[in-house]
Amino acid sequence: MKSLKFYGKQNLSFEESKKPFVKKKDDVIIKVKAVGICGSDISRYAKLGPYVEGTIFGHEFSGEVVDVGSEVTNVKVGDRVAGCPTFYCGTCESCRNGDLARCEKLHVMGAYHPGAYAEYAKLPAENVIPIPDSVDFDTAAMVEPSSVVVHGFYRTRMQPGAEVAVMGCGNIGLLAIQWAKIFGAKKVFAIDIDDEKLAIAKEVGADVLVNSIEKPAHEQILEHTNGSGVDVAVESAGSPITSAQVLALSKKGGEVVFMGIPYADINIQRFYFEKIVRNELTVLGSWNAISASFPGKEWSTSVHYMSTGQINVKPIISHRLQLREGPETFDKIINKDGFFGKVLFYPELG
């Protein structure tokens, strides 16, 4: 089968691999219909390299079941599904407490297990989520990032009528805008330095667009909130700069949720750090997308709101490509050669 294998930093190869087969009683073999590039894939490609040299990369995908183990009951051959790519140990203290996202050995497919940049992928049955006919394969390929976002919102105290600021309008930020509305936000501020991204933010439901190049984001937010700030600020850019700036967006007693991963040291100026103390902020980290009972309500909720159209991923998708275009596409992204939103590959096209 065709696949993308990850050999080292900036070393991704399009090549033939062995097709997975049923080995365990709970195995499910899935023909991959659509698979997306995650921001974490870009960081690992550019800076960190693979966990295991030569592993098939990728983890955000949807597809059709083509074979199942003898004890699989939740899906059958022909079913349309999304894949939860996350593996947990089940034995560490966090797992025993039901805090699966905090598992000591948490990892996703494409790390130690073959990933989804391939014509076929294999997962245990509990990692396979059926999707209704109303959710197309492109949308289903984004159930995983959607679940990452709602996992973070579930951690907040957010109430209907809240004002929310989303800092960073990449794929996660654009989903966060939509989830903020689902959670009842009366106003969502989208913050970025790229007007093209801000235009997409408007299309998916942002009420106020803030270009932070023109004036510091917190100054613009204060102008729009009568000097108060927002109830919840979401950091979704994963930038060392915005990871500090986001602390100045929330009102006194407000919340800050970190969903982005900066992959660099964070130097926080006194002005921003003091906001935590003086405003008595609640600062929340959010990691991955799973909870008990596995894979968690994040997944069923994502599928539901995708089926109603309240989570709309179509404006977020910028490229639909053949798998063989993977290596050059990763290079273009890290070299900033053009605008890239969510990139989807279609392995069956070659």
From TrEMBL:
Molecular function (Gene Ontology), one example: zinc ion binding
Enoyl reductase (ER) domain sequence ranges: 8-345
Pfam family, one: ADH_N
Highest taxon above the source species: Bacteria
Cofactor names: Zn(2+)
Matches recorded under InterPro entries: ADH-like_C (IPR013149), ADH-like_N (IPR013154), ADH_Zn_CS (IPR002328), ER (IPR020843), GroES-like_sf (IPR011032), NAD(P)-bd_dom_sf (IPR036291), Zn_alcohol_dh (IPR050129)
Alphabetic keyword roster: Metal-binding, Oxidoreductase, Zinc
SUPFAM superfamilies hit by this protein: GroES-like, NAD(P)-binding Rossmann-fold domains
Regions that span the bilayer: none
Family: Belongs to the zinc-containing alcohol dehydrogenase family.
UniProt-recorded name of the protein: Galactitol-1-phosphate 5-dehydrogenase
